[in-house]
Amino acid sequence: MGGPAPPGPPRTRGSVDDHGVYDDARTYYTAEERHLNTRAGPRTRTYSQNSLFKQMERLGLQEPYRRGSHDESTIPHSRRFLIQVEPTLQSLLAQEDPDKNMQITIEDNGPKVLTLRTAASNGHNRFDIRGTYMLSNLLQELSLAKEYGRKQIILDEARLNENPVNRLSRMIRDHFWEGLTRRIDASSIEVAARDPKDWTDDPRPRIYVPSGAPEQYEYYKKLAEERPEIRLDVQLLPEKITPELVRDMNAKPGLLAVDMEETTDPKTGKKTLRGRPFVVPGGRFNELYGWDSYMESLGLLVHDKVDLAKSMVLNFCFCIKHYGKILNATRSYYLLRSQPPFLTDMALRVYDKIKHEPGAVDFLRTAILAAIKEYHSVWMAEPRLDRVTGLSRYRPEGLGVPPETEAGHFVHILEPYVKKYGITFDEFVDAYNHGRIKEPALDEYFMHDRAVRESGHDTTYRFEGICANLATIDLNSLLFKYETDISRIIRSVFGDKLVIPEEYCTGTSLQPGHVETSAIWDRRAKRRKLAIDKYLWNEEEGMYFDYDTVKREQCTYESATTFWALWAGVSSPKQAAAMVTKALPRFEAFGGLLSGTKESRGEIGLERPNRQWDYPYGWAPQQMLAWTGLYRYSFTEEAERLAYKWLFMITKAFVDFNGVVVEKYDVTRPIDPHRVDAEYGNQGLDFKGVAKEGFGWVNASYIYGLQIVNAHMRRALGTLTPYETFVKAVEENRAKALAELE
Ligand SMILES: OC[C@H]1O[C@H](O[C@H]2O[C@H](CO)[C@@H](O)[C@H](O)[C@H]2O)[C@H](O)[C@@H](O)[C@@H]1O
Ligand SMILES: [Ca+2]
């Protein structure tokens, strides 16, 4: 045992690995020597596609269709091109991007072929780049090269025809995570403070600091003084956060401070603060989110970005300490609501990676103490707890109309009131928000609307006008997971005794010094399972449903969140089997799991528009939790199949649509599943030339999903094999192998 690892296969000179063909863009395009044409002698000419075309024209030759003296090198991966960046970019776009959206997709009807000059011939020989995928990769590479200031590059062909699964994984690892990482401190506050949702006339950077973090207040004040040009507005929050306060803060929306760590300024040698980094979802969502962060951390951990996942856990602990909860997200207008809770699992996964490091147990203690406080003060307290069933609901406090939605979202609800009072829309909203107009039916509507947003499923007909009354299978599965995780951690890491310090008692009925043991958490979990079985399980349908705690009846909307019970381990093996045979077929579509069934959504039309968390849309968290849950109950084949379908859909859209990765997909649409126009539309589409961020939880689902499928499937994905073709091939091979045995 032990000893050095066996040597790997010998590396041939000139092989792909040899010169970092797949280096990240910064490394690839900033390495001077890589882009010097070492073969260039006195004959070197600097070609651009433009000058190439002109020259061909002069000679009466046709480009790009003529093959003539083309470089026909057949050595895979060894071909490189000598390219003048800007002129080639311009000709590529002029020719292959007729709809001028700075993306080359299957919808662009250009000739789909462009001739490049090979580096080996000093630019004398030519080679055709063909098809949407290679041309769009060329556009992406040229955009990156330009960004790094390159005028001329030597580009490896292997970057243009790379296996798409490898390319997307590489983009996520080397580019997207970085593009989505934020740090709130002097280094980049302008970027972190930007809020595409800001509805005010003066969207300036603003930060709210909790009263318990005076050192941060000093830090940001100083920063604002030293850099007046960024117009940073620094505000100290009062100790007590009330619905009135949050409503009034809507006139001045801002970022909420998160955790900072002490560090030494390399310039002055003095102690200073540095923001703990976090990943944002992307698009219009440029702040730390609750459940997005958990999903993102699953991808970060696969990519060994453990520090970033750990840092997000610590930011959550800060939020629980200073704001009383893990926030929906860290903007002032989200202050009163949370999101689906995943802290214990997230902390455990990080701990698992760092447990050999000093401080790991302290990290886990901090996270678990925070989770216990959150459990008691948020989820198991009024108004979220329903004392009759013992189950919990999404039911945050708040006043008035949520300001962050896309303009027009509430028009159909508010228009009748606007007419009734004969005032303008804005006047009505202001009067209603400040209580000058009282409309109890609207209060009820917005209580449910806030609950919908806390649930993370904003919006869906499952929840409209009812959400705050529902004990959902989602939330109660997650709380069951908290209970079982906390029990296990107390027993296995803390010797079955965890002392609760004073700061973790506020908002709970615990006394400082109280000792938690696993037994009480086991009892809590047992009680919740019983209640879930009693109120949420439906034997006939073979799945879980929400329970209306006011009407005291089970609901009928079929939601993919039924599979969260598998993820949390709350189902019996019999229930799990019933879900697989009865429920799963109702949710399975071309690209994976539907959010809900078509029957449950009902008819849609002008008066009843599509909601983004209903049929036909599919979301990354639903997929990830279902795969993990199915795996947990040994339904490996089902988990692999669902993961394959999801990954195939994402890879295909990535290949056909210039590297696109979006927030959610229409899982019933094989050709362009990224097209979603419900509510605020899709996020992640809006890029020029090359995608820089993807979308947080979809990035993660891709990386995580590749851990779920087997190696054979991964290879089939790389060749864009549809699931049915893949299965057929597997079956044929099996039949052949069996026949050979006989
Ligand atoms: O601006 C409208 C709503 O946007 C958020 O919801 C959606 O994006 C979140 C970030 O990716 C995600 O966590 C949520 O599940 C999505 O539905 C926000 O969370 C809502 O509170 C907000 O009203
Ligand atoms: Ca285009």
Automatic annotation (TrEMBL):
Catalytic activity from the UniProt record: alpha,alpha-trehalose + H2O = alpha-D-glucose + beta-D-glucose
Similarity section: Belongs to the glycosyl hydrolase 37 family.
Gene3D superfamilies: 1.50.10.10
Pfam families hit by this protein: Trehalase (PF01204), Trehalase_Ca-bi (PF07492)
Name of the featured protein: Trehalase
Feature: compositional bias, Pro residues: 1-10
Keyword Transcription: no
GO cellular component terms given for this protein: cytoplasm
GO biological process terms, semicolon-separated: trehalose catabolic process
The protein's required cofactors: Ca(2+)
UniProt source species: Canariomyces notabilis
The keyword Hydrolase is assigned to this record: yes
Neutral trehalase Ca2+ binding domain mapped to chain residues: 89-118
Metabolic or biological pathway, per its Swiss-Prot or TrEMBL entry: Carbohydrate degradation
Region (Disordered) location: 1-21
Swiss-Prot/TrEMBL keywords: Calcium, Glycosidase, Hydrolase
Top-level taxon of the source organism: Eukaryota
EC number(s) reported in the record: 3.2.1.28
Molecular function in Gene Ontology: alpha,alpha-trehalase activity; calcium ion binding
